Amino acid sequence: MFSLHPQLEKDTFPVAELTLSRLLLMNNKNFPWLILVPRKQNLKEIIDLRTDDRTILMEEICLASEQLRALFKPDKINVASLGNLVPQLHIHVIARYLTDSAWPAPVWGTPCEPYDEVVRDAILAKLKIRLRF
Amino acid sequence: MFSLHPQLEKDTFPVAELTLSRLLLMNNKNFPWLILVPRKQNLKEIIDLRTDDRTILMEEICLASEQLRALFKPDKINVASLGNLVPQLHIHVIARYLTDSAWPAPVWGTPCEPYDEVVRDAILAKLKIRLRF
C-alpha cells in the first residue's frame, strides 16, 4: 500500500507510473525539476531498496535525466536523494543552467515559483508523449 | 587514462579503488562524507556512463552508504551528483545528523573544517578494513 507523502503531493504534478517509481514534476517554474518516488512502503534511504530495485531506480534516474536533456537542453543535471525534510525516499533530477537563478549553488531552499497552467500542461504533455503515457 | 580533478585531489583523501570508482573521504570533519569518482575519462553526468557501469555505480553508492551507516550511525544519508563547480562526474554520499551544523539544509556551501590527522587516519583505517583494502 503506497501513498505519496502529503508534502510531495502538494508540491508536484504526476507525470507517469514507471516500473518502480512514480514520476512527478515539481511545481517550480525556475527549474525543470523531476522527482522519482519508488512505490514501496517505509523507504527512507536508497539502501532500503532490494538490490534489483536499486538497479531499476538507477535506470529510472537515467530515464528522467534523458527526458530533461532532450526537452530542456540543460548545461548540467543535478541528481540527489536528500530527504532531510520529507522522509519518504524520493530522488530529485533537476535541469540546471549557467544562467539559472541559483547557479552554481544547489536549488534546495531557493524560492519556489509555481508554473502558469498553460506552461505546466505543455511540459506534462511533452513528458507523457516521450514516455508513452 | 583517468586523472582526478585537481579540486577533488585537494579536498579529499583516497580510501579505496572500487570496481568502477575511486572512493574518497572529504576533508571536512563536520560531516562524514564520502565521494565516488568513476575512473573513466570525460564523464560529466551519470547518463554518460554505459548501462552496466550505471548498475555498478549504484552498487558502489550503496556500498559507501552502508559503510557510513555502519561506522557513523547517521540519522540520514544524502546522496548527490551535482557537479556545478567541479565538472568531473562525482557522487557525494554524506552522513547527516539532526544535530549537525547544517541540518536540515544540504551541506554544500557550508564551512569546511579539515580533520585532525589522528581522527582522519582512524576513519581511513576503519573504512579500509571494512572494504578489505
The two chains with the largest interface, and their residue counts, are: A-B, 32 and 32 residues
Question: Percentage of helical residues of chain A?
Answer: 25-40%
Q: What's the CATH class of chain A, please?
A: Alpha Beta
The second-level CATH architecture of chain A is: 2-Layer Sandwich
Structural class of chain A: alpha+beta
Please give the number of β-strands of chain A.
5
Q: Sheet bearing the most strands of chain A, described?
A: 5 strands, antiparallel
CATH-assigned homologous superfamily of chain A: HIT-like
Could you tell me the radius of gyration of chain A in angstroms? Answer: 14 Å
Range of strand content of chain A: 15-25%
Strand order of the largest sheet of chain A: 1-2-3-5-4
The number of helices of chain A is 3
- Report the CATH topology name of chain A: HIT family, subunit A
Q: Mean pLDDT of chain A, nearest integer?
A: 97
- Compute the separation of the termini of chain A in Å: 22 Å
Number of domain modules of chain A: 1
Detailed description of the structure:
Two copies of one chain form a homodimer. Chain A is of the alpha+beta class and 133 residues long. The first copy, chain A, has one domain (6-131): HIT-like (HIT family, subunit A). The first copy, chain A, has helices at 6-11, 51-72, 117-131, and strands at residues 12-17, 21-26, 33-38, 76-81, 91-96. In chain A, β2 (21-26) and β3 (33-38) form a beta hairpin. Chain A is globular. Chain A starts with 5 loop residues before the first helix and ends with a helix. The mean pLDDT of chain A is 97. The A-B interface holds A 44-47, 51, 54-55, 57-59, 61-62, 65-66, 69, 76-85, 96, 103-106, 108-109 and B 44-47, 51, 54-55, 57-59, 61-62, 65-66, 69, 76-85, 96, 103-106, 108-109.
